[in-house]
Amino acid sequence: MHRSPGLSLALTLTLSACADSSGRGSDSATDGPSSSGISATFPTSAADSSGSDSATANEPTSGANASGASDSTTTSPATDPATDSAASATTETTIGVSDSTVGSTTLGTTGTNTSNTSNTSDTTVGEEECGNLLDATIRDFSLGHPDFEDYGGNAAYKGLVKADLGPDLKPVYANPGPTPQTSGPDAFKQWYNDTPGVNQTFQVQLDLIEIQPGLYQYKSDAFFPVDNLGFGNEGLNHNFGFTTEIHTQFIYNGGEKFTFTGDDDLWMFINNKLAIDLGGLHPPLSDTVDLDASAAMLGIAPGQTYKMDIFHAERHSTGSNFRIDTTIGCFVPQ
Prior knowledge:
- It is a single chain.
- Helix content is 28%, strand content 26%.
- By secondary structure, the chain is α+β, with helices and mostly antiparallel strands.
- The chain has two domains: 33-105, no CATH class; 115-333, Jelly Rolls.
- The longest helix is centred in the first third of the chain and has 27 residues, at 5-31.
């Protein structure tokens, strides 16, 4: 059959164009702009966190969560923006719940985990969450320590510590040497500082219960948080040699009071100022600070958040009482 010259030329141009297009397609797969889409879909290194987060999106963990929401958005194929937005919001909510749970769990208790109570009762004041749990550090000592077991008394011995909290957020020993209740500044410094071979540290939580509207209480007539722990009971029915350290913040609204009852030593500071001084060994004693009446001395004003620092010691093998009664209804973890 006879072919026209025009048809032959058209076929030749078409075949040439197809070959040229195939060559450019191969180069594009290797070096072209579409390579970023490929790497987003198929991570090429173990360091690419998007692949890891995508695989564990339903099991967020502390540390990896911050990148999880943005990584999952990056690795997903292009879809409707409204769908992506909803997925991102769901991921962030899950991460928030997970982080909250981890935070509560790390605050160890010697009994039942009270994290659910904390989450239920917490309210938000500005950027701060507050509730009725006090995180406490317990340091266990041997009764052979020079400040434990060998002292006694029937009344508070005021003036063992200075009126201002130290820059390290610890009470400052106020005497140059021994007192009728202590052996000296060096031994006292060990009470609220981790000292290898001298004390062992444990974390507990004290749950303030609302016993009537606006009145919160923690009460224990047998306050032995480290029985059989640390240096042990040393042949006694309880572990009597330990100190308690609490750091928290509270919202001062006006009209609040704070009462402590117990033995032995107890110092409570508000805004770095000594508000209750029940130092020394003694049977259960009580003291109350009326925040309104003491506002000028403490340097506080309603509507503000202030630090509260509590230091307690149980130093003699008789009894151990620890009780707080307060109208402060909002404590902020510090």
